[in-house]
Sequence to fold (289 residues):
Amino acid sequence: MYVLEKAPAKINLSLDVLFKRPDDYHEIEMVMTTIDLADRIELISQNKDCIKIESENRFVPSDERNLAYRAAKLLKDTYGITKGVKIIIEKNIPVAAGLAGGSSDAAATLRGLNRLWSLGLTTKQLADLGAKIGSDVSFCVYNTTALAQGRGEIITEIPAPPACWVVLAKPTQGVSTQSIYQQLSLNESKHPNTNGMIEAIKNNDYSTMCNLLGNVLEPVTVSLHQEVEQIKRQMENSGADAVLMSGSGPTVFALVRQESRARRIYNSLRGFCEEVYVVRMLGYQETLD
Ligand code: ATP
Fold:
């Protein structure tokens, strides 16, 4: 027996950090949505009690460091499951890019094992389990468009954003999320308008959504990685309606209405940047089977 799950990447349309909490986590407010760039997770029943990870991507760990492994282990431990599973990860989302690839794989594993093992858990139960794995996993379990608050685990679903194309470019140098948060100075930061962004999405107002794209972490990452700023400028000069860095970076995305303009931006970045993608904005749930 096996199941397939699609694990889409996410982008932040708005990312704000409100304050540092007594428990040392940051209180955040993020408006997130999914895009049509996804890993493919295949879950295959095993006769033995085990968790095996397989992936052809050399950046994906094949042991307990893998977030998909941790998701399977958490389900097994929480519900006393003695069944085994092989998890095959077809990696299409760039790794350590600010696109929540690992979190999405973990979330897809939770959703898929819920089906494979007929556990009957609700989305909320899976999302609560996901919060124990990482702060983006709860959102990824819902896999729609949402406001994420707290550490990222308090999820309020909102409608899908206006339809558009997304051009993504990942600079070569990776970013450490921890070091970006450490260098963030909240008093000096320009905070995005989270409520305005939610209203724009609810009103299906594309131009206001573009005007309100904002990420409090972007100036910190830009100060460390000049390539981020160069890619942003290149996208703007090639006709992007709006440009923003996703998460703690370093991936930058541009929004456009017309596919032809998305292709123009894509072509302008080829050669300048190794990893460039043109995809659609999603924001609503999809499954493979
Ligand atoms: P976020 O946007 O949630 O901060 P990210 O997109 O920046 O995440 P990931 O692609 O999830 O980052 O990878 C971060 C690290 O997690 C990698 O360096 C990798 O070693 C580890 N990792 C664990 N599981 C996975 C997985 N299934 N896919 C990719 N990376 C994984």
Notes: The chain has ten helices and eleven strands. The pocket of adenosine-5'-triphosphate is lined by residues 60-61, 65-68, 89, 95-103, 105, 136, 177, 247 (CB under 6 Å).
